[in-house]
Every structure is written in structure tokens, then in C-alpha cells.
Amino acid sequence: MLPFDSLIYGKIHNKQVYSKGEIVNTDKLPRLYEENDSVEQELLKKFRNLDALFLDTAPQFRSYEHQMQELADIESQYSELIKPTPRPKRRDPPTHDEMNGPKLSTDAVIRLGGERFIQSFSSSTKDVSTLSHPYGTSFSGLSDQQVQDVQLIENLLLCAEKVSQQQFERSIKLLEWCDVLSSNSGNPIQRLVYYFSKTLREKVEGENGRILTRGSGKSHVEDIEGRIMTPNPATLAVYQNLPFFQAATFSGVQALVDGVIGSKKVHIIDLSIRQGLQSTILMQALASQPNCPIEHLKITAIGTRFKQKIEQTGDRLKSFAESINLSFSFNAVVVKDMLEFNKDLLELDQDEALGVYSCNGLWTMIAQQDRLECLMNVIKSTNPRVMVVGETAANLNSPNFVNRFIEALFFYGAFFDSLEDCMGREDENRALVESVYLGQGIRSIVGTEGVERAFRHVNIDVWRKFFARFGMEEVELSMSALYQANLMVEKLCNGGSCTLDMDGNSLVIGWKGTPIQCLSAWKFE
Predict the structure, then answer these.
(1) 303 belongs to a structural domain
(2) Do 106 and 10 share a structural domain?
(3) Based on the number of CB atoms within 10 Å of its own CB, is 255 exposed (0-12), middle (13-18) or buried (19 or more)?
(4) Residue 372 structural domain
(5) Which element (helix H / strand E) includes 355?
């Protein structure tokens, strides 16, 4: 295992440190995220094994249990995007530490904490200590609160290192210090450390046998999915306030429209229907086409549970379709096991233009690779015109605890930062999202191992390798799709902190430079 501080250094400098001692830029060496080059080559030789492919590398938030008129008003953004509204002023007044020091993003504080952590081991880690660091050694210009936040991150990293070394007594003492200074109602660093510290404590107690059972990781995923399927104020508030969710949704729908444009009959297979946000936007987009008005839209929702909730979503979509005079039908295909899913369940019609949509609908099957492969084989057999895929843009599936911890710290740090900028600290919806959606994710990614770890995310490079097995070719997103993402970013409050970057043909949507969502479009050979 590589030294903890070496991995921190690699993350800060956007480099990867390998066990043989060399440091290289990650963009010069595409990898399957193993830590040893010889191991990677062996994995490439055994490429048929999906375990090798996914070895090391929220959420859709929306609600519809309001009146149909309110739904129509929300979704009418699709046609109103060309009329950007002035950005509202900041929700909360500047805090004391903001007025007495430069405002630092959560990412910057984590990097400063990582820098301090590296320096604390400089005498014993020659390979890293002799290299330059991105930040100065002093806290000049920082407020007292910011200094405390940096020290809090440094201490959390030290605690994680002790956990990785199974020095549990020392880690418990460090966690006690973290518990004193962290808070689930404080600034984003305090909130971030609160949930990571809580998870590390549970991990330590589990290792010491003090916790007999921590529950099924799969049950946590099902609980979150069930909450997302049910209309509620928390998911609505987050979707409305965090720009990267709306940017991904509108851009993804446009990519779907681009794939079936010109057809009068359209059939969409949705692998992540949830509350149907994307479907209502799609309806308006197809119904408003001036040159080729659509005659009928069919949506088939695929799932393995929550049949009643999926059908309720279908009922809401039917009502919405009626309100805009769109001929529409909905089909719910719910199988007990994805291995039972087959082409005959889809009621395909050769006169229909077929498209597939999946937004955070594939990652839950990474741990059930036979199910994922079965799903993709069925989709391939339907030969859709386009498949639009949105997934979390992070490498959170490493079998190595240290790797997962560092990646998760930066990823969730950006998430907490976005909530700080876009929602008030006393917002009950924010607190619920942090405790349930983000807290459970941290608990699974950082606190569990093996089959118990249900939350597994990989980046676009891994998905590209996986999709290649099914003859899928990544296609370029249209200017219209990119335009939709940009308009949503420009339209929403704090959208200026939302970053849009291209990774090949894929759109990576981030927060202050940290990737959050990745959107891509595919065709089958």
C-alpha cells in the first residue's frame, strides 16, 4: 500500500503516485485504476472479466406531488431558457469569517489541509517532501475560523491514516477532537468532517467488534431510491437550487431529442424514471417541434422494485401529457430480478424511433455485474437510435480504503460547498439532504468494504471501456445540448460556480472545478 501522504500529494497535484515510486500525470496514462502497472496489463488481458473493469476506480432530486399547473410552470423553463433572469443575491449575509478573510472554497481548504498533512510527514517521506507544494506553509491572510477548518481537515486525514493502519486507539482520540470542532449545522467543512468522522468512528467500532451489525448497504440504496421516487420538498429544493442537476437534465433531454428528431412516433426506454422530470421536459420539447409535430410518445420505465411508485409517476405523466394535448402512453416493466428482463417486455414497434435514457441508473448494478450485462445485452438487441447516459463523475469504487477516502473527501466536499452557496444554513431541506443522501453515501463508500459497499461510482473512462464491449460508439453532443447546459448555468443563482468541461465527447459538469456529473450519448454499431 502506498503511503497515505503520497496519495494526498498526488490528488492535490492532479498526479497519480504508483508503488514503484514514479509520479506521472494521469492524463498521459489511461488506467483501469489499479496501483501497479503489471497488474493493469494483466487486467487488460482478461478484459472479459467485468470485475477487472470496475475494480478500482444523488441523486436525482425532483418532486411532483403538487398541482399540475405548478408542474407546468416549473417545466416551462424549457421554452423560457432564452430569457435569462437576473441572478438573485446571496441568500445569507456574509459570515464573520468571510468578512475577516478571503473566501475559500471547500476544495481549497481540503487542499490546504492536505498540504499541512504532507508536511507533517516530510521528514519520513523523502520522495514526496522534496517536491514543491502548491500552498505556502503559513496561514497568513486566513481568519481564525479558516485556520481551524484547515487544521480540522489535517486532523481528519491523520485519523484516516491511523484507521488504514489499524491503529484504532490513536484514531479514536483524533476522532474525539474532530467531534468537538465539527458540526452538522456549521460551515461546509464542519459539516463535511462531521459525517466523515461519524463514519470513521463506526468503522473503527465495527473493526473492534463493538457493532454487531451495521445493516445492509443495499438496503441503504433502496431507502434512498424509495425517497427519490416519492415527491418531497427536500428533493425539489435541491433540484431547483443546485445548478449542476438542472444543467445535466436539460442537456440530457436535448441529446435525447437530437437522437429521435424527425420522427412522428417516439419510444423512450427510461432506466431511471423516478419522478419523471426528464419526461415532462421531453414532452414539451417534442410537442414544440415546428417542422415535425409528434403524433405519439411512448415511455417504458424499467425497474426491479417500487412498481406502485413507478405507476404513480406514469399517472402524473399522463395528466401532464393531456395538459399539453400530447398523445402519450406509459408502460411500467418491473421485474424481480434484472436477469429476468428481456426484449419481449418492451412492446417495440418498428415504426417508432427508439431512444434510451439513463441518469444515475447504472451505478447501482456495478456490484451485480451479471445483471448489468444482461440489461446492456437487451438494450443492444433493441438497436436504439441513441442512448443518453448520465452518471456521477467520480472514482469512488476502489477496493483500497485510502483511495476511496481521498476521492470521496474531495467529491463530497464540493457537494457540501454547493449547498452552502445555494441554500441557507438553517434550511431544513438542506439538512435532510445532507444527513440522508450525502451521509448514507459517505457511510457506504468510506465505512464499508466488500459486498457490503453498495455505493459504487466510476468515471467516464471506465464506462467507455465497459460500453465498448457492446459495440457502443460515443457520439458528439450537439451544440443545442451544450447550449441547454450553459443556459441553465447562466440562469440559476450561483451558476457561475458551476463548471462545464468536455472530456472527449462527454460533458462534465462540476462545482468550482470538481467534477460532479458526466453526460454522454451513445449509438450501437
Answers:
(1) yes
(2) no
(3) buried
(4) 232-394+457-524
(5) strand 353-359
Residue 266 lies in a domain: yes
**DSSP per position, 208-226:** TT--S----HHHHHHHHHH
Quick: pLDDT tens for 79-108: 333 233 333 334 455 554 444 556 899 999
Scan for cell 403538487, then name that residue: 66
Structural domain tally of the chain? 3
Q: Rounded to 5 degrees, what are φ and ψ at 452? A: -70, -25
Instruction: Round to whole Å and give the CA distance between 371 and 388.
Output: 19
Residues 445 and 462 occupy one common structural domain: no
Q: Give the Cα separation of 260 and 255 in Å (integer).
A: 9
Cα 523 to Cα 387: distance, rounded to the nearest angstrom: 6
CB 301, CB 270: distance < 8 Å: yes
In whole angstroms, give the CA distance from residue 245 to residue 60: 8
pTM over 0.90: no
pLDDT tens track for 234-247 = 888 999 999 999 99
Asked whether 265 and 354 are in contact (CB, 8 A), the reply is no
CA distance 15 to 444: 26
CB 342 within 8 A of CB 374: no
**Which of 361, 341, 339, 329 lies closest to 229, judged by CA?**
361
